[in-house]
Design a protein that fits this description.
By secondary structure, the chain is of the alpha+beta class. The chain has 2 helices and 6 strands, in the order αβββαβββ. It has a single domain, classed as 2,3-Dihydroxybiphenyl 1,2-Dioxygenase, domain 1 (Roll), CATH 3.10.180.
Length: 114
């Protein structure tokens, strides 16, 4: 019934953020026309958490070794926040060229995608 998911990141500097996904993370992509790049994502998981307030959405890129991934990003002059152990995983935040942030984490929980 569902064939995939399409994630949209809104950016104040879409060109710079597209360049980040293309040249820093090396995500495969297609040009949908006029420079609108659409990137392939790694396998994904979806978790539904309870909330008392209005629902919201978060996007985290997962990695097998957070500290090594952060070191590789730092070598490319990409800023990350210090790692923080959350019990379910260790997280960091990557600053995109536009100034927006994106979650990055090494999960400790069982993975649905493997």
């Amino acid at each position: 019934m569902i064939s995939g998911a399409h994630v949209i990141l809104f950016s104040k500097n879409a060109e710079a953020d597209r360049d980040f996904f293309k040249n820093v993370l090396k995500f495969p992509h297609v040009d949908a026309g006029e420079g609108w790049l659409i990137f392939a994502l790694p396998p994904a998981e979806l978790a539904v958490h309870p909330t008392e307030g209005k629902g919201s959405h978060e996007l985290y890129l997962m990695c097998d070794d957070l500290r090594r991934t952060m070191a590789r990003l730092k070598a490319k002059r990409i800023k990350c926040t210090p790692p923080s152990d959350q019990g379910w995983g260790t997280i960091s935040t990557v600053t995109l060229p536009s100034g927006s942030t994106l979650g990055l984490y090494q999960p400790k929980h069982p993975l649905a995608l493997r």
